[in-house]
């Protein structure tokens, strides 16, 4: 049970947007799309190292570095230019089928909708515009403003300060357990979206809300089942 939030804060990649268009690109390099999961894990690893060593650089750059590293580990040579081109596919990802309708319903219910992403300001603006989701959001916040990546607690404090709300007045919505844990570190409750392949794998208590897609979350709010 959580109090009704004023603001819903959404992660972007894999929460709103589907990474499926990356599959043919990865298959072309690796012979299979299977390495996408390992690449994304390496991308997150790179962002955490950047946090701990105070060496912030754009998420897309870390993504290209992670792709080159993964290819090298598998005995495959890939140029920085090609790696950057593959990673740039993330700027044109489609939304999951239910996302637009769910966002519309949530806005009509009276929530403020905001995104919070590890991507750059330029990247998230292009992503939301390409997916025709930009009209639903009051703000599109990026970690670029503070030079730290999620799940660092500073990122969530930054978002709360920008939105002028307390932690218990916001709800972090993500398909990644680490994102919810980061928000919880500053007192913000979370809603975990169980996208295909997304599982709650941390020993922490389960999130306040668990749904399989955003339409289900909109249903819960519409039915006032949580309040």
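^ Assign residues to that structure.
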């Amino acid at each position: 049970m959580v109090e009704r939030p004023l603001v819903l804060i959404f992660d972007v990649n894999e929460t709103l947007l589907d990474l499926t268009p990356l599959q043919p690109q990865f298959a072309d390099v690796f012979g299979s799309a299977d390495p996408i999961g390992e690449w994304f894990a390496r991308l997150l690893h790179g962002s955490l190292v950047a946090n701990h060593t105070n060496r912030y650089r754009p998420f897309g750059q870390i993504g290209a570095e992670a792709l080159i590293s993964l290819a090298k580990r598998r005995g495959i040579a890939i140029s920085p230019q090609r790696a950057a081109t593959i990673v740039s596919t993330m700027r044109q990802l489609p939304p999951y089928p239910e996302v637009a309708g769910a966002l519309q319903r949530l806005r009509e219910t009276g929530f403020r909708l905001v995104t919070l992403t590890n991507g750059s300001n330029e990247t998230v603006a292009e992503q939301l515009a390409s997916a025709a989701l930009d009209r639903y959001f009051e703000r599109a916040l990026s970690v670029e403003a503070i030079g730290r990546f999620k799940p660092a607690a500073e990122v969530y404090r930054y978002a709360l300060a920008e939105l002028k709300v307390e932690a218990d007045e916001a709800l972090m919505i993500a398909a990644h357990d680490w994102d919810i844990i980061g928000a919880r570190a500053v007192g913000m409750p979370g809603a975990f979206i169980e996208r295909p392949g997304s599982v709650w794998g941390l020993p922490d208590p389960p999130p306040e809300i668990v749904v399989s897609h955003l339409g289900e979350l909109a249903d819960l709010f519409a039915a006032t089942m949580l309040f």
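The mean pLDDT is 95.
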